[in-house]
Amino acid sequence: GKKPLRQRVMDELKHYYSGFHLLWIDTKVAARMVWRLLHGQVLTRRERRRLLRTCADLFRLVPFLVFVIVPFMEFLLPVFLKLFPEMLPSTFETESKKEEKQRKKLNAKLELAKFLRETIAEMAKRNKADTG
């Protein structure tokens, strides 16, 4: 069944607390990486991706904070998330949203692979017809 309202509110508060906590940790790690970059060290590919993701999350945080600060605007957050799904920083995503995003990426890759396979098969047929 459905959870009581109090439990749902507490779950949402825990979700946002953990999201802000993870964003704070990512920001501290990113600051250390920037410090290393400024002192001439080179970042690995993984560190560079994490730094870029954290910077993007910090820029996404600005419009998200408007919803948190303005009273009763948090009720519009689901509408805006439906219109702009990438508006929420990555630390606030739920597991189901992450899985859905991975599923969409996989389907896109499969469609691309199918298209490339068909294109290569068609090119092979043309080459056989030209040489045969």
UniProtKB/TrEMBL annotation:
A cellular-component GO term for this protein: mitochondrial inner membrane
Listed name of the protein: LETM1 protein
Spans through the membrane: 58-81
GO biological process, one term: intracellular monoatomic cation homeostasis
Domain of life: Eukaryota
Membrane topology qualifier: Single-pass membrane protein
Keyword Iron-sulfur among record annotations: no
Keyword Transmembrane helix part of the UniProt annotation: yes
